[in-house]
Amino acid sequence: MQLLKNDYFDNMGLAEIRAKVEKGERLTFEDGMKLFECPEPLAVGALANMVRTRMHGNKAFYVVNQHINYTNVCINGCVFCAYQREEGQDGSFVLTKADALAKLEAAALAPREVHIVGGCHPKLGLAYFEDILSAIKERYPKVVLKCFTAVEIAHFASIEGITTKEVLTRLNKAGLDMLPGGGAEIFAPEVREQICPRKSTADEWLAVHEEAHALGMKTNCTMLFGHIESREDRIDHLVRLRESQDRGGGYTCFIPLPFLTENSQLTIEQPLTGLEELRTIAVSRLMLDNIPHIKAYWVMLGVKQAQAALKFGADDFDGTVVEEKIGHEAGATSQQGMTRSELEEMIRGCGCTPVERDGYFNEV
Ligand code: V47
Questions:
Q1: Which has the closest alpha carbon to 199: 213, 189, 211?
Q2: How far apart are CA 97 and CA 118, in angstroms?
Q3: From ligand 1's centre to the CA of 23, what distance in Å?
Q4: Strand order across the 178-179 sheet
Q5: What is the mean pLDDT of the chain?
Q6: Is residue 49 situated within a structural domain?
Q7: Cβ atoms 43, 9 nearer than 8 A
């Protein structure tokens, strides 16, 4: 049912884009910029909601999952990051395999997905990760293990003196199913140089994901926005992800991450408004015509904004999470974890139908 008349979009200068969206035609970089410049963010949201509804109806997905951070020690020292510690610094930690298993036992969730990421620790070799993955898979054979950003994969390769393809193959054998989307930040080199100069470059990040896709693995992708990047940089990032998906097809979900400013060395002049966050999510839905899901990550967005995002193009609410450190160190005010019934209530509260999924987005 079309509730909004074409005139509404046409009066906002979006006639051409509306027509393309209706026909399922690909939007250009310039279209993306027009969506950012449109005076009415609600019109952009309505177009994104049209696409989201065409793809997923009124469903909003969630997963019973658990996040585990194995270390906060990281050699990269990205200026935006509030989570990183130096080796030996107060508050630094490294989990043992037993610690990781104990966290899963303590949550007593029977998770369908376990998301494991950490920092680029200078000393942890691949055997440590293989050991953790195989122990978790042995205890929870059906779980989808979504672990290690492309940046960590590249780091393991450099520590071991082997290729990233070898790292992926070995971890896959040990139980790794998917890569999460972190570490993409913003691909534009001038911005990357300022916010994460020691991290993998955009091309390196994309190459690891495309290698994983060639090995038959699914991956996610992210964009960190609302710091020093421009709107052009955001569209450039989305177009590069779309091109990468055209080459391999293995991205399942895109997660737009609004920058949280606490405990960060990065000072920004103009913090994001709530509407700019929502508009960016909507533009992502409209530009990423070949990535099936857009995640409203309630941890970083906050629960209420994540609910609104479900009407601005997002269709996934992430999951129970249990314990989260990266966003909370940076000032996230959301709770630590949510129960299945809380997630369902949040999703119903914005008029969507909750659908439980597994790590691969199969309905369960
Ligand atoms: O890569 C770091 C970001 C990411 C801050 O794949 C920050 O399903 C905001 O990638 N403010 C990690 N963001 C989180 C992530 C993720 C989360 C949930 C699901 C999935 C998935 C992936 O968090 C980092 C970085 O881009 N980040 N610091 C900050 N201050």
A1: 189
A2: 14
A3: 33
A4: 65-69, 113-117, 144-147, 178-179, 218-225, 251-258, 293-294
A5: 97
A6: no
A7: yes
Residue 173 lies in a domain: yes
What's the alpha-carbon Rg for the chain, to the nearest Å? 20
Please report how many Cα atoms fall inside a 13 Å half-sphere around the Cα of residue 88, on the Cβ side.
Answer: 2
Q: Do residues 225 and 257 touch, judged by C-beta distance below 8 A?
A: yes
- In the numeric block, the tokens 């314990």 are attached to 323
> Under a CB-based contact definition with an 8 Å cutoff, are residues 287 and 22 in contact?
no
Ligand 1 contacts CB of residue 205 (under 6 A)? no
Ligand 1 centroid to residue 239 C-alpha, Å:
20
Q: How much of the chain exceeds pLDDT 90, in percent?
A: 97
Token couple for 359: 């790590």
Pocket test for ligand 1, best of 80, 178, 222, 317 (most atoms within 8 A of CB): 222
* CA neighbor of 117 nearest in space, from 86, 97, 147: 147
71-108 confidence digits (pLDDT tens): 999 999 999 999 999 999 999 999 999 999 999 999 99
- The angle subtended at Cα 113 by Cα 109 and Cα 115, nearest 5°, is 105
Domain count, the chain: 1
Joined together, the tokens standing for residue 59 give 């469903």
How far is the C-alpha of 153 from the C-alpha of 182, rounded, in Å?
11
Confidence category of residue 162, pLDDT binned at 50, 70, 90: very high
- Which residue has a Cα nearest atom 6 of ligand 1? 180
Does residue 285 lie within any of the structural domains? Answer: yes
0.90 surpassed by pTM: yes
Question: What's the CA gap between 165 and 170, in Å, rounded?
Answer: 9
- Is 17 among the domain residues? no
Which domain CATH number covers 178? 3.20.20.70
- Phi, psi at 140, each rounded to 5°: -130, 75
**CA 33 / ligand 1 centre spacing (Å):** 24
| Ligand 1 touching residue 65 (CB < 6 A) | no
The boundaries of the domain holding residue 114 are: 58-357
